Amino acid sequence: VGTDRGLAVHDSRGWALYGDVPFEGAQTITGDPAGRVWVCGGVSCEVGALQGNRWASVTLDEIAPGPLAIDAHGDVWLSGDNMRGVARWASAALPTAVRTDFGSLEPVAVQRLGAAPNPFNQQVEVRFALARPGSVVLEVLNASGQIVTTLARGDYAAGSHAVVWDAADGAKGVASGTYFCQLAGEGRPVVRKISLVR
């Protein structure tokens, strides 16, 4: 299951999570005959295959990968935001750069983060939920990772919360494009991509 915090896996031991950045907000999860699990989407815009603790992937610049499928020949088919058409990787040309540094499985996160509408024109409501009271910081970052604004900072009770970001910001405003809401508290930050379209 793809979650805001990573790729959640359920087996005889219960729920666990691949919590590294490539797996946050995964859009598509599918298997192939070789036993690999293909994952795409997320904040890092990567497409790759997971086999055990080995991850082979490529990053698609300025493209947010969407639906992905494996055909009978083992070729990978992909579409996504800002992609004019559909891409195909032949099985002989699949990613081979392997990472093993994302660590082992960890408990599933309890924080949740969402935004609506998305894409948005001027205002977006950012919602987050905490399973227990805690101190959090909710920020909006641009595509370069710079802080655009801080939406929330401080101690919050358990349960659901919502804040509104007005991207007009008075007379200045911000440009159309991709932004990231980042909720930092206990454990790894939770990130959600949002798109401003004027």
Structure summarized in a few sentences:
This protein is mainly beta.
Task: Describe this structure as you would to a colleague.
The chain is mainly beta and 198 residues long. 0% of the residues lie in helices and 55% in strands. The strands form five sheets. The chain has a five-stranded antiparallel beta sheet, with no helix packed on it.
Write the layout of secondary structure elements.
Elements: E1 2-3, E2 6-11, E3 14-18, E4 26-31, E5 37-41, E6 46-51, E7 54-59, E8 64-70, E9 76-81, E10 87-89, E11 98-99, E12 112-116, E13 123-130, E14 134-141, E15 147-156, E16 159-166, E17 177-184, E18 190-196
Antiparallel strand pairs: 1-2, 2-3, 4-5, 5-6, 6-7, 7-11, 8-9, 9-10, 12-13, 13-16, 14-15, 14-17, 17-18
